Amino acid sequence: MSPYPPQARQAAVIVAALALVACDGTPARVKPWRHAPDPLALAEQAPRSPALAKDDDDLGLRQRRDHTLRIHVDAQPRTLHPLLAPSVWSRRILIGPVFQTLVRYAPPATGVGTGPGAYLPGLARSWRIELGGTQLILELDPDARWQDGRPVTSVDVQFTLDTARDPGRHLDHLRGGMANVISVELVNPRIVRVRLSHPDGWFLRSLAELPIVPYQIFGNDLAGGALIGSGPYRVVDTKDGVVHLSRWDGYKGARPAIPDIEYAYQPDAAQALMAAKRGEFDVIPSLVPEHWPGQASAPGLAASFAPLELAPPRFRYALFGAMTPPTDDPRVRRALGLLIDREAIASDVDRGLARPIAGPIWPSGPGDGPGPTPPAIDPAAAGRLLDEAGWIDSDGDGLREKAGQKLRLTVLALEGKNGKAAPEVDKALDGLRRANIGLDVRLGTEAVLRNKVNDDGINLAFLEWNGAVDSDLSRLVGTGGADNAGRFSSRRVDQALAAIAAVWEPASRGPLVGELAAILADELPLAGIVRVAPQGLVHRRVAGVVVWDGWFDVTACRLEADPAP
User: Fold this and answer.
1) For the chain, give me the number of helices (H) and strands (E)?
2) Is the CB of residue 163 less than 8 Å from the CB of residue 169?
3) Sign of CA dihedral 336, 341, 342, 345
4) Together in a domain, 335 and 395
5) Does residue 350 contact residue 530 with C-beta atoms inside 8 Å?
6) Do 431 and 319 have their domain in common?
């Protein structure tokens, strides 16, 4: 008996019959095998498994590791351009390695924070100051070439400087340093003459921040020019979140030791740290607070990575409305400065990733020189200063008053989470409330703060400064300075700033900067709170890292053998 039921046997007979019919007559034509698609080619075109693609990426990283320095990028640059809309990362990637400046501002030989920097030749092999400091002659390096083979000429320099000082170009981050330039003149193809309206010792410092670009590339289209520089590295690729620089063999200066550099964007800090453990990153510039200090000291990382503190000249501060009562009184400003608990903000709010400061001056800071010790919170001393200024709580209602007017401050601050003040601001304001000071706190975004900080009636604003080491502080505290939103004005401060501006060499500025720091501590147009102190990691195979101005010169680094496990 058949093991199949009757319906199955019937179906089998029908299928067999159909098969016989199909085989009757001429066989159907088929495509010869030689015209069939190559199955290996089809396999190459088929979507890859994510796991297999990851394996390929890992293999590629391992194969490139011996000749590649790989750096974690935590914020994707808005644009990759030497002049337009610069970001921290676009400048780190391009300025120096790809696009050079006329003058380099080098760190002290003994390391960051140990002394002033020094000017060294860049694209200009020499310069001289003439006519009492109102004329600068720059001679270009005759070996300097653009990466397309053309020589760097005085036309390129003239074009770059004139572009930077043209208000229509909107290069605000550069135009201030060119404010005293009357003209940029071509003496010959390798010599440029710059005429200044008056002596300006900061002009060389400004040139050290200005990358020179080729006129032939950017002259007709500043925004769309190719990334052709004159530095020791050229941009090879900018895809898939990775900027790849490769050593340019046509560079006539000192040859970098590392052939390739990759700047790889990874927004997830945990993923970046895991990649570092696998050997896929050599540099993690800044750890998030959740990873500091625990992950940095974990055995799996500490064996291969050394600590890296970039120490950028960036700080947070309380700006006082110097023309608005009651903060028009220096005694009130000094009292408010003594009510801010800087140590608590640095340790509790910033989790050790910040350092207390008194103002904008510290070694390797915006003002590069000796600064005063950050004042400890001192409510008693603050109370005495307020009493001296006439602000006393005579009726016991919890608020100080003077001539019938209550002591109330209008405060502008960045809005944090849940519509409240940012934690560091709340911590700072807590000390003011305890001193019987009324507060009218107005919160807003960064854009709102920029628009409102110059308004009349603002007594106190919590802001952040992000500039370069050894900067001209007249923008911040000089009369009429572009960033002097509190409208502070002092003859003593202006005289100190003028004395500093008359000096061309950084080594001669230090004592004068120290004198300015003492005056600022007395008149207090602003109270420094903390300077940021990001903590990062650098692989122990990377040698030659010298931190300066919040970064390090990748062209001076070299790769050594991996440390023994």
Assistant:
1) 18, 27
2) yes
3) negative
4) yes
5) yes
6) yes
CA 537 to CA 325: how far, in whole Å?
47
- Domain membership of residue 426 (yes or no) is yes
Pull the structure tokens for residue 90: 């676009």
Q: In whole angstroms, give the CA distance from residue 156 to residue 218.
A: 10
- Do 267 and 174 fall into the same domain? no
Write 363-366 long-range contacts (CB < 8 A, 24+). Answer: 363/113, 363/114, 363/115, 364/112, 364/113, 364/311, 364/313, 364/469, 364/548, 364/549, 365/313, 365/315, 365/469, 365/531, 366/313, 366/315, 366/465, 366/467, 366/468, 366/469, 366/470, 366/471, 366/473, 366/476
Residues 322-350 have pLDDT tens digits of 999 999 999 999 999 999 999 999 999 99
Q: Give tens-digit pLDDT for 141-185.
A: 999 999 999 999 999 999 999 999 999 999 999 999 999 999 999
The radius of gyration computed from the CA coordinates of the chain, to the nearest angstrom, equals: 32
The answer on pLDDT for 265 being more than 80 is yes
The CA-based dihedral angle spanning residues 74, 78, 83, 87, taken in that order and rounded to the nearest 10 degrees? -30
**Has residue 270 been placed in a domain?**
yes
In Å, how far from its chain's centre is CA 206?
17
Residue whose C-alpha is closest to residue 361's, from 475, 248, 482, 510: 510
Q: Which of 555, 535, 551 is nearest to 69 (CA)?
A: 555
Q: Verify that 173 and 306 share a domain, yes or no.
A: no
Q: Which two tokens stand for residue 286?
A: 């800044």
Residue 142 maps to which CATH number? Answer: 3.90.76.10
Residues 268 and 365 in one domain: no
DSSP code for 327: T
Domain count, the chain: 3
Range of the domain at 104: 99-218
Are residue 272 and residue 418 in the same domain, yes or no? Answer: no
* 256 and 392 both lie in a single domain: no
Residue 276 shares a structural domain with residue 330: no
Domain edge (last residue) among 218, 250, 270: 218
pTM of the entire structure? 0.86
- For the chain, helix, strand, coil in percent to 5 are 35, 25, 45
